[in-house]
Amino acid sequence: MVARHDLTTDPGLQEQLLQARRGTAFFARKLNELSDAELDGGSLLPGWTRRHVAAHIGYNARAIARLIEWAATGVETPMYPSVSVRDHEIDFGATLSPIALRNLFDHSAVHLSVEWRDLPDDAWSHEVRTVQGRIVPASETVWMRTREVWVHAVDLDNGASFADIPATVLERLLRDITGAWAARGTDAGLLVRVTGTDLVFGDAEAAVVVTGPLAGVTQWATGRGTGGVSAGDGGTLGDAPVPSAPKWI
Asked: What would the pLDDT profile of 116-141 be if each residue is shown by its tens digit?
């Protein structure tokens, strides 16, 4: 029997799909390391247990699969009817038994991977709508999922860190975040510099400069800590408290 493989022949998209699947495998590993009792423990997200994180990732796969079905068929199938419905679904998912919660993650991840696999080249450019109302090509769903699985694997608070996330994912995530700040004008007076690279974002006349390695700066930008990051003012680095990052999403 011939092995099934992705129908897309775009090398860039194939690489992105690989990164999304690697992130899914990484999340699965961190989830499987947790005992059933440990699922009740807190995550790095305020108000969410690890159960909430796992439920979110499971239902997120189903939601993104609906967008791929939309791209494939032309029949509109939104991610969710509304943000409130999504939030209610996550709260419900957090009440599932451990085995049901784990099955939700496993089955939804496989389903999404198959939907991606079977989408032909010409359908990846078909437009769909995210839960935030953005109109994007179906190819954007791969990055949407990549971001979710890598970052929320850290949120399980089970030993994963931003240093475990591939540099290409971190850089794209940081560009997304700083781009959102710039679009809203919330980065005024703030410059972000990644040490050892030419990555610089924000206000060139900034009064506050935040600097650090890529993993540390991205962690700070997502609002998940300041480890390894320093801040300065008056043109001197490292002599000021690290500010809270502007709101991202």
From this structure: 999 999 999 999 999 888 999 999 99
CATH of range 167-240; options 3.55.50.30, 3.40.350.10, 3.40.50.2300, 3.30.1050.20: 3.30.1050.20
d(CA 239, CA 242): 9
CA angle 6, 9, 14 (to 5 degrees): 60
Q: Cα(226)–Cα(155) distance, rounded to whole angstroms?
A: 15
Single pTM value for the model: 0.93
Q: What is the DSSP annotation of 181-237?
A: HHHHTTTTTEEEEETTSS-EEE-TT-SEEEEE-HHHHHHHHTTS--TT-EEEETTEE
Residue of 102, 104, 113 whose CA lies nearest to 30: 102
